[in-house]
């Protein structure tokens, strides 16, 4: 029994030959390449992130605190060049108020106190930070020490999508609540002194930050890294590539495989769709959406809707019969045009080639 050949050149005699080259690889989407960020004259990553996304508040609540944080001094050293293997066991500061690291850092009481961590967010899988094990022990331990905590389950890649939105809501609610309490205290203190309290927190003034968040998984490289990138996508005016560059520029060992990149691309499209919908709704409420002009309607005119339910028992009129005939003519024309298109059969006879 002979095997079928894979290309026309291998055929001899009167045998059908494939028109195209055949492949047996599993279909997969194209890969997204993440280039390294450019370097500025100081030798630091040239990644600008100066302000939050202007439409962040339209799709997520509790985002006022972001406008009172400065991001001008986010890059203090080039971790891409100064990275050492031992750094993977520590946590790195990705945003002025957000750290990314492994699970052992969440157990380090000295680190939490020294850095002023007020919330830890764990992303646990089937191994490592297990349910009823490490993750819950970390949560209960930190709550007892005055540090709030949240743990999300991410047993597979698709579960990370739920972690994206959940992390954004938990982090923003925590920091917004602390910022409002801090602003109220500063306002009362400023009134007692007869002046105004500072309202903008810089990277050098950690005491003015409403709080700090540590996002972790077992290694700090797999599940927690895409979660931090998803938060940056939701809150700042950057794309998926730039969000990954920001995370990897601070924690070089963060891993973003093809599945994680595809999830972040999907998350980015979801955020764009939400912002578009909220933008249209906002314009509609403000009366900014107007009906199209008569000259614009002439180019693309939709047929009027007919109430078929009201006229279900009545017979069609002559006008309706003519309209139906016109529709059939259009369909016939489309069918004739489709039939006139030339195509290639998947196989062809050797003597016809």
Description:
The chain is α/β, with parallel strands linked by helices and 353 residues long. It is built from eleven helices and seven strands. Strands 2-3-6-4-5 form a five-stranded mixed sheet, with helices on both faces. Helix 6 packs across helix 7, helix 7 (224-235) packs across helix 8 (240-250) and helix 7 packs parallel to helix 9. The longest helix is centred in the middle third of the chain and has 34 residues, at 160-193. The radius of gyration is 30 Å and the shape is globular.
Keywords:
two-stranded antiparallel ribbon, 11 helices, globular, 353 residues, single chain, 9% strand, alpha/beta, 7 strands, five-stranded mixed β-sheet
Radius of gyration: 30 Å
Helix content: 40-55%
The overall pLDDT, averaged over residues, is 75
Strand segment count: 7
Largest sheet, strands/sense/barrel? 5 strands, mixed
Q: What order do the SSEs take from the amino end to the carboxyl end, as H and E?
A: EHHEEHHEHEHEHHHHHE
Distance between the termini: 25 Å
* Lateral arrangement of strands in the main beta sheet: 2-3-6-4-5
Beta fraction: 5-15%
What's the tally of helices?
11
Structural category: alpha/beta
